[in-house]
């Protein structure tokens, strides 16, 4: 590999200078490089193996960074990174301060637009294309859109605003999968889109002939556009893209380099808004990934635990659904990621995968709830942000008992800023009738689901993408008997600790370690674990019995400071007359940043949330 072609590629110009006969070898070397590196360090494998020929062709036909190439989501941009000078940094992929697993503007001039969420590329590309018109630039803009992203409504909002005369190329990469099998009418339609070769040839010939006629050529061409639509409707099947006034090429074998390059050159030469529809094989060139692309969508550097919060959640939902036919599961294209696909295997009639459409998933759940169904909508914290208006307007304002199961709550060290689940507590805390529960053990999760099941108002249950911490279970949940959700401590309220940590959720194991460090230094320290965050009056009531002997409190929060639980709880304690002259109240939270350091580091330490930093902050100036 050291003497191979890939090792000589440091810029798109190097790709352009290769003779065509070397392209297949380059593609083979790229796949070998990705397989060897991603299986060691983790990352998105199958999607990148599928777009190898496509990405090479893009950099041969277009002139990045002058021509902007925008990858939707960004998880299919690894080949693009290799071809734009980032090969030697690949060992840092998906590490804090290292190479991002998505596109990132601060990382390279060849990443014109950052991404990590789906369905944004066409809107962004349209913005660049219109900006080129305003500035008089003749540069091209290319959006590389996966068919999973095509299920997102934002794509169609953008297509509705595309003007035919823009130098905008939208590459629609169809592989039948986003992570799991694509669902919905758009995905079904896309798999059936065809255009007759005879019609395509007739269309190209008429465009070519009439465009050459001086003075009257363009008016005739515009008139023929209208005539062609009528003519086509008589003899050929309808095409969604052409009905929008966009030129369509495809479908093309996206893993046949020569065909892809010819299609992209054709799209570029047309000088207008063109849809290039390619069909690729996700996991191409690696048999295990081709055979099971969903299992190789995201590869982890270490084996994940089979038991996680979301697997435990699904076990509980399946149990509830066996007793109550009104229990339903809703996901937004993340059936595997949330574990709800297993619920769907047992109860297919009560399982709804709505595609990449979080706002719709939430309003759809509101409709189900209004009709008497008990919906459990499982959505990643970072994606829940996209449905905020649906939560406020469609769920909370009508006080509908939608059960929001918020997966991946907390920091996402590998995926970085686009996937951190650090905003949900803050933005949900402002909604008057919202209950927010943050279980840190399977036992507490069971209690939270039972509470949500019986609720008559909106409930959000947030949990991490991890297994239960044995230390947390042992410290807080070794008791027998039933009780209500609220707060638990690792010390007795009658023998209160002087230095009290307060925390919730996935940060709890680190806080327990910080407490241990303080105890080793001779401090009388303890930890209170909050289960219910909002309503904050209930939270404060559950907490107060443990604060009687406290000299200093440190609230450690794996979320943003502004509007977060620590700030909200402090306000509630003030209302209740808690004496902050006697007891100092400190907060360690993510303060006014996106938790995205530019240089390699340990993320929790960088944010002041490591056990050492927490212990030091609690003991400073004492």
Which descriptors would you attach to this protein?
622 residues; alpha/beta; Rossmann fold; 4 domains; seven-stranded mixed β-sheet; five-stranded parallel β-sheet; 17 strands; 41% helix; 15% strand; globular
Secondary structure: helix percent: 40-55%
Count of folded domains: 4
CATH homology group of the largest domain: Thiamin diphosphate (ThDP)-binding fold, Pyr/PP domains
The N- and C-terminal alpha carbons lie at a distance of 58 Å
Give a topology summary.
Blueprint: H1 12-16, H2 23-41, H3 46-50, H4 52-61, E1 68-71, H5 78-83, H6 121-135, E2 141-146, H7 153-159, E3 168-174, H8 185-192, H9 197-211, H10 217-235, H11 240-243, E4 247-253, H12 257-270, E5 274-279, H13 287-291, H14 309-323, E6 327-331, H15 335-338, H16 340-346, E7 351-353, H17 358-370, E8 374-380, H18 381-384, H19 388-396, E9 403-407, H20 424-429, E10 435-437, H21 442-454, E11 459-462, H22 470-476, E12 487-489, E13 499-504, H23 508-520, E14 525-530, E15 532-534, H24 536-543, E16 552-560, H25 565-575, E17 584-590, H26 603-606, H27 611-619
Parallel strand pairs: 1-2, 2-3, 3-5, 4-5, 6-7, 6-8, 8-9, 9-11, 10-11, 13-14, 13-16, 16-17
Antiparallel strand pairs: 10-15, 12-14
């Amino acid at each position: 590999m050291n003497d191979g072609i890939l090792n000589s590629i440091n810029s798109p110009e190097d790709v352009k200078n290769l003779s065509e006969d070397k392209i297949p070898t380059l593609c083979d070397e790229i796949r070998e490089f990705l397989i060897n590196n991603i299986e060691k360090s983790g990352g998105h494998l199958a999607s990148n193996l599928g777009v190898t020929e496509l990405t090479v062709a893009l950099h041969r036909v277009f002139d990045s960074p002058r021509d902007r190439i925008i990858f939707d989501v960004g998880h299919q941009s690894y080949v693009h990174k290799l071809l734009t000078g980032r090969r030697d940094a690949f060992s840092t992929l998906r590490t804090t301060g290292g190479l991002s697993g998505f596109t990132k503007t601060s990382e390279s001039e060849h990443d014109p637009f950052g991404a990590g969420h789906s369905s944004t590329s066409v809107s962004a590309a349209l913005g660049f294309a219109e900006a080129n018109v305003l500035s008089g630039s003749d540069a091209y803009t290319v959006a590389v859109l996966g068919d999973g992203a095509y299920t997102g409504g934002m794509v169609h909002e953008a297509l509705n605003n595309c003007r035919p005369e823009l130098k905008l190329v939208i590459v629609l990469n169809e592989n039948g999968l986003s992570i799991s099998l694509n669902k919905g009418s758009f995905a079904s339609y896309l798999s059936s889109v065809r255009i007759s070769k005879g019609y395509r040839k007739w269309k190209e010939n008429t465009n070519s002939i009439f465009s050459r006629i001086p003075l009257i050529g363009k008016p005739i061409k515009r008139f023929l556009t209208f005539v062609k639509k009528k003519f086509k409707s008589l003899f050929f099947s309808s095409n969604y893209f052409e009905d929008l006034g966009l030129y369509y090429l495809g479908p093309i074998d996206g893993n046949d380099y020569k065909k892809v390059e010819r299609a992209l050159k054709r799209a570029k030469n047309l000088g207008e808004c063109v849809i290039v529809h390619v069909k690729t094989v996700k996991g191409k060139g690696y048999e295990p990934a081709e055979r099971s692309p969903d299992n190789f969508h995201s590869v982890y550097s270490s084996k994940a635990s089979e038991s996680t919060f979301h697997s435990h959640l699904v076990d509980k939902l399946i149990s509830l659904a066996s007793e109550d036919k009104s229990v339903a599961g809703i996901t937004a294209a993340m059936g595997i990621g949330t574990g709800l696909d297993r619920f769907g295997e047992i109860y297919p009639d009560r399982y709804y995968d709505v595609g990449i459409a979080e706002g719709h998933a939430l309003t759809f759940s509101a409709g189900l709830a209004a009709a008497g169904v008990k919906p459990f909508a499982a959505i990643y914290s970072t994606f829940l942000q996209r449905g905020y208006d649906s939560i406020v307007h469609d769920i909370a304002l009508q006080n509908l008992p939608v059960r929001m199961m918020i997966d991946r709550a907390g920091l996402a060290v590998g995926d970085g800023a686009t996937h951190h689940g650090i905003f949900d507590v803050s933005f949900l805390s402002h909604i008057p009738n919202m209950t927010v529960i943050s279980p840190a053990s399977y036992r507490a999760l069971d209690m939270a689901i039972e509470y949500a099941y019986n609720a008559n108002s909106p409930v959000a249950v947030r949990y991490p993408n991890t297994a239960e911490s044995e230390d947390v279970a042992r410290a807080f949940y070794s008791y027998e008997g039933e009780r209500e959700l609220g707060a638990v401590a690792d010390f007795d309220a009658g023998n209160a600790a002087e230095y009290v940590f307060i925390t919730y959720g996935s940060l709890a194991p680190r806080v327990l370690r910080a407490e241990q460090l303080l105890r080793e230094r001779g401090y009388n320290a303890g930890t209170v674990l909050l289960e219910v965050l909002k309503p904050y009056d209930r939270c404060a009531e559950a907490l107060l019995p443990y604060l009687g002997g406290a000299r200093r409190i440190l609230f450690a929060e794996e979320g943003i400071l502004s509007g977060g639980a620590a700030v909200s709880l402090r306000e509630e304690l003030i209302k209740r007359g808690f004496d902050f002259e006697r007891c100092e109240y400190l907060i360690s939270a993510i303060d006014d940043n996106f938790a995205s350091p530019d240089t390699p580091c340990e993320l929790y330490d960088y944010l002041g949330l490591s056990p050492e930093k927490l212990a030091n902050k609690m003991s400073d100036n004492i």
